[in-house]
Amino acid sequence: MKIILMGPQGSGKGTQAKLISREYGIPHISTGDLLRAEIGEGTDMGKALQDIIAAGRLVPDETILYMAGKRLARPDCADGFIADGFPRNLRQLLELKEVWSVDLALQIWIDTRTSVERLATRINCPNCKATYGPKKPPKQEGICDECGAKLVQRTDDTATESVIKRLELYWSEIQPVLEYFRSGSRLHTINGDRPVEDVYAAIRASIEPVYQSSRQEIC
Ligand code: AMP
Among this protein's residues, is 122 annotated catalytic? Predict the structure, then answer.
C-alpha cells in the first residue's frame, strides 16, 4: 500500500504518518527527516541544507530527488510506504516514478492562522521525531515521553517571517500535485483542525477500503 500524505506545516502530518506506519506496517519516509539527518552528520552538504531550511526556502529538487529516490529504492519500500513531505511540487511528482502509482493521496487541511499558531508553540524530539504542543504537552517538561530525549524547538519554526514564507511556498507549489491526484480520484482531504485521534479516525476511514482491496489482491 503506497500512500502520500500532504498538508501544510503544522498540520500534524508527521504524527499521523507515524500512526499509519505503526498500524499498517509500512515505512514512514519523510524528506524533512532525511534532510535533518544529513544536517546532523555535520557534512558540508548538511551545512548548506541547514541554511536553506532555516531561511524557509525549499531544498533544490535535485537533492530531494536523489535522497528520496535512494530511500524508496531500499527493500523495505517494495511493498509500500507512507511518503511525508514529498512530492512537494510538480517536478518532484513527475520525476519520482514510485509516487505516480500511489494508491491514495491524503491531504490534511488546516488554515494558515492555525499553522502559524501551531508552529510557534511546537516542540520536537530530535531522536524519535515525536512532537508536542500546548494541547499535547510532554508528561515531564522538556523531555520526550516516548524515548526520554531532550525536546527542542526547530530553528525554522521560530521566526514568523520564515514560517509565513514556508506556508506561501507550500500552497503555491502543491496545487498541481493536488490537481494530479484529484483528477485521478485518489485525493482525500481530511480536516486537520481536530484532536489527533479524530484526524486519525478520518484517515483510517480513507485507508481501510484501499487496505482491504490490497489484501484481497495478495490472497
Ligand atoms: P518538513 O519537516 O517537511 O517541514 O521539512 C522541513 C524543511 O525541509 C522544509 O521547509 C524544506 O526546506 C525542506 N524540505 C522537506 N521536504 C522537501 C521537499 N520535498 N522539497 C523541498 N524541500 C523540502
Answer: yes
